[in-house]
Write a structure and sequence with these properties.
The protein is α+β, with helices and mostly antiparallel strands. The chain has 3 helices and 7 strands.
Amino acid sequence: MGEFDIKIIKKLILKGKWLLSDHALERLIERNLKVVDVLTSILNGEILEDYPEDPRGHSVLILGRKDETYIHTVCGLKDDYLIIITAYIPEPPKWVDERTRGGK
């Protein structure tokens, strides 16, 4: 699958064609995030950044929300599945706000 489109990503979630990487699972546990919250944030989200040159394969950063909490999710496509690579709450110092990267 080549081109990323938020509609395709949302469709894959709704069809149940998504997988959580081991890394993502570890990060969710570490960050006290629930899988359902990440899926909800993707379903109401938008593509914030596109990483076509990622050495692990083309991926995107999705900005979404669960209630009042912003969640960033990095996803890739493999075969006809969405792979959730990692998810986190954007916070300083890496993020000024949910849309703006911080300094170093």
